[in-house]
Specification:
The complex is a heterodimer. Chain A is α/β, with parallel strands linked by helices. Chain A has nine helices and ten strands. In chain B, 68% of the residues lie in helices and 5% in strands. The chains are: A alpha/beta, B mainly alpha.
């Protein structure tokens, strides 16, 4: 039984069938990649998992508990964190503050009125945030304004923010897009390192096949809203339907 | 970036506030009525900034809480005692409850829709106070104290004149006057009571700004979505900020009524709410000192510019030849007296266009230039020695 079980999820945008009976079973501790051409519905699928969108039909179970119908913050508190396709960070805050927030969310839950304590006095949280930024190799940018970071750094920051929550399931929407090769490799190493040390289950969306094949245990291929193939990386590589979807060879 | 030391800030702030009657005397602002306004509207602005400055939610309805505070306090004067403590406590409770209700409904929306909703609510409150709720608010006339009021905690009043508001016998309108270097200095009890309260609630706002709670509110302002997907339920955070700022406004309303025991519906009108927004933006939203500064500047303009009439203007331009004098008076006339808000509007526009961070940004820029100059000269001094 998987940590995440998605059954028969459908989503329409007007006349567009964005998700067509999607089924997915993600095993605990595995890295499950979803690949597919632009506009296939990959991001839409993640949106349905985190409560950003409500699917028309279907069910999503996380660790045996229903996800659909829960609010975004409740889903996150269940242990699901997401890195977005365009980085979602707190641009007006410092890098350090950006990472402290998920640390607080992890420790204190979705709401607590601690208006009298000082952030400065929260040594536990501060150490945690510092360690997290050390892990993504951003310790020298602690007090920079998040808005002034490069695109690659914004992604790494967002990744650090998600990891700071110690999630059970990490959803990554093109975590290396816009990164230089060296940064991409560093991110792959980081994700591998996390897999080894913490065993966080990951669902990763990527266009970069180098990233996909270095990380994934299982690959699902999404095209026009439907899963057209699923299997081990070796199987997917040579799959005719996949080549068709990617090369755009139209069926007659 | 300039780093402020909060302890130093608190110390300087306390000294400035407590010496207000001396510092402001040369500017013609050293009289109790105006000094009290500075401090009370300072409290209002500091509280408003906790909502607007931290979360970015722009409320156009805070005058409603000011009004609720005033009405609650005057009722305590009528029913219980002329001691201001019960009135202040009731005002904070009532405005807090009222803010909880209004906030709960209006915070379902954000941005412009939230602003419009708060505006609508405030106007409803104003209309209610003006007409429907006349038994509680005494409608158009406003709520006042009477000789015949119960005041069950106070000793019987046989003097035939209305009693004064007090703090355990210390009367709010008591003023100790002295002359110093030709200046008329007035130390007023009401001012000092309000001043100590301002210092206390200013300290509270520093604590809120520096707390994890404050950090979450700032995160709401930058990216509410990210915060939601980080497991934070943003609604109770914004609601708490709304209620706290509503309670600050209620406290300010209570103090207004404590200085002058009457409450009228006009205190709840939307123009009043608008002027709170002006104060905070003018001074510098999301800074600690800015709102107090903005409140001071606006109340000063209101008091000084509205007092200038044509007679004063003729005196000013007396030295000019007759037709020029008339011309100058004609030019300046619309900007003073009843038209003081025209001047305020112009000043506000200039500030927002050239200093979007308000007066505090201006102060920071000057401070930075000063530091740079100093550093520059230090470098110059060092070079030849090497
Ligand atoms: N909120 C929305 N409303 C209407 N249509 C949408 C919405 N979100 C996505 N779509 C449409 O659904 C389809 C799938 O979009 P989605 O973003 O999921 O694709 P994707 O697989 O993530 O593509 P990419 O690789 O470019 O990120 C697209 O045609 C898109 O235009
Ligand atoms: Mg996408």
């Amino acid at each position: 039984m998987g940590i995440l079980e998605v059954q028969n999820v459908n989503k329409h945008f007007g006349g567009l069938h964005a998700l067509n009976n999607v089924n997915l079973d993600v095993k605990k501790g595995s890295v499950h990649a979803i690949i597919g051409p632009n506009g296939a519905g990959k991001s839409t699928f993640l949106n349905c998992l985190i409560g950003k969108l409500a699917p028309d039909t279907g069910s999503v179970m996380f660790q045996g508990k229903p996800v659909l119908g829960q609010k975004p913050h409740q889903i996150n508190q269940m242990g699901i964190s997401r890195v977005f396709q365009t980085p979602e960070i707190f641009t007006d805050l410092t890098v350090f503050e950006n990472v402290m927030i998920p640390c607080f969310a992890h420790r204190d839950g979705s709401f607590v009125l601690n208006a009298w304590k000082k952030v400065k006095g929260e040594t536990g949280i501060r150490e945690q945030a510092e360690q997290m930024l050390l892990d993504v190799n951003m310790q020298d940018k602690l007090h920079m304004n998040a808005a002034s970071l490069s695109r690659g750094d914004k992604r790494r920051l967002e990744l650090a923010m998600c990891l700071a929550q110690d999630p059970k399931l990490l959803l990554l929407d093109e975590p290396t897009a816009g990164m230089a090769r060296a940064d991409t490799n560093a991110t792959i190493d980081l994700l591998k390192h996390i897999s080894e040390t913490r065993g966080i289950t990951k669902v990763i969306i990527e266009h970069d096949m180098h990233v996909v094949f270095s990380l994934a245990d299982t690959i699902s291929v999404l095209a026009q809203g439907a899963i057209i193939a699923e299997g081990l990386p070796e199987d997917i590589k040579g799959h005719p339907k996949v080549r068709e979807a990617y090369l755009g060879e139209a069926e007659v | 970036m300039l780093k402020y030391n909060d302890k130093l800030l608190m110390l300087v702030f306390t000294i400035l506030v407590l010496t207000g009657p001396i510092i402001l005397a040369p500017f013609g602002a050293g009289y109790p009525d105006l000094l009290q306004r500075f401090v009370i509207f300072g409290i209002l602005a500091v509280g408003y900034n906790i909502l607007f400055g931290l979360t970015g939610y722009l409320s156009f309805g805070h005058a409603a809480f000011l009004g609720v505070g005033s009405y609650s306090t005057v009722w305590m004067f009528k029913l219980l005692t002329m001691n201001i403590i019960p009135g202040i406590i009731l005002a904070i409770i009532m405005s807090g409850l009222f803010a909880l209700l209004i906030g709960f409904i209006t915070l379902r929306r954000s941005g412009i829709y939230f602003s419009i909703l708060t505006l609508a609510f405030a106007q409803m409150s104003y209309s209610l106070a003006y007409s429907v709720l006349t038994p509680i608010t005494n409608g158009e006339t406003g709520l006042q104290i009477r000789l015949a009021d119960a005041r069950i905690l106070d000793a019987k009043n046989d003097s035939g004149s209305l009693p004064s508001t007090n703090l355990f016998g210390l009367e709010m309108n008591d003023t100790w006057r002295t002359t110093f270097m030709g200046m008329d200095l007035q130390f007023n009890v009401g001012f000092y009571v309000s001043a100590f309260i301002l210092i206390a609630v200013f300290y509270l706002s520093i604590r809120i700004f520096r707390s994890p709670f404050g950090l979450m509110l700032r995160a709401v302002k930058t990216n509410q979505n990210r915060l939601m997907y980080t497991g934070i339920n943003t609604k109770p955070y914004t609601l708490a900020a709304f209620v706290i700022s509503g309670m600050y406004a209620g406290l300010a309303g209570a103090l207004l009524a404590s200085m002058d025991p009457l409450a009228g519906a006009e205190r709840m009108q939307w123009t009043e709410s608008g002027s709170i927004v002006l104060m905070v933006i003018l001074g510098g939203a999301s800074t600690l000192l800015g709102p107090v500064l903005g409140a001071g500047v606006i109340k000063y303009f209101e008091a000084i510019f509205s007092r200038i009439n044509d007679n004063v203007l003729h005196e000013w331009f007396d030295i000019l030849p007759g037709f020029l004098e008339t011309f100058m008076v004609w030019i300046v006339h619309p900007f003073v007296g009843k038209g003081w808000s025209l001047t305020l509007g112009a000043v506000f526009m200039i500030i927002v266009i050239f200093l979007p961070g308000g007066l505090m940004e201006g102060a920071n820029r000057i401070g930075k230039r000063f530091v740079k100059l100093k550093r520059g000269s230090a470098d110059n001094a060092k070079t030849p020695a090497e």
